[in-house]
Amino acid sequence: MNLDRSVPVWPQVADDLRRRLDAGEWGPGDRFPGTVDIAAQYDVSQSTAQKAVAAIRSEGRLRTVLGQGSFVCES
User: Fold this and answer.
1) Residues near 18 by Cβ (< 8 Å), separated by ≥ 6?
2) Looking at residue 1, what is its pLDDT?
3) The whole model's pTM is what?
4) CA–CA separation, 73 vs 60, rounded Å?
5) Where in the numbering of this chain does the HTH gntR-type domain appear (predicted)?
């Protein structure tokens, strides 16, 4: 994915992660990649990855279990 670095990057990462969720890359109950992995995949900072995941979590698509990570919610 080519990111447009002239505008905020985290919404672009969040959009791509949503697209991948919609495509079924991760199903309900699956563990979602951690922010370190997401940051590496998109070549962004971990804080950028955290913002992208937080946006998706706020939509109710992910739930986070302390010490275990984020998981995909039922649609």
Assistant:
1) 56, 61
2) 84
3) 0.93
4) 7
5) 7-75
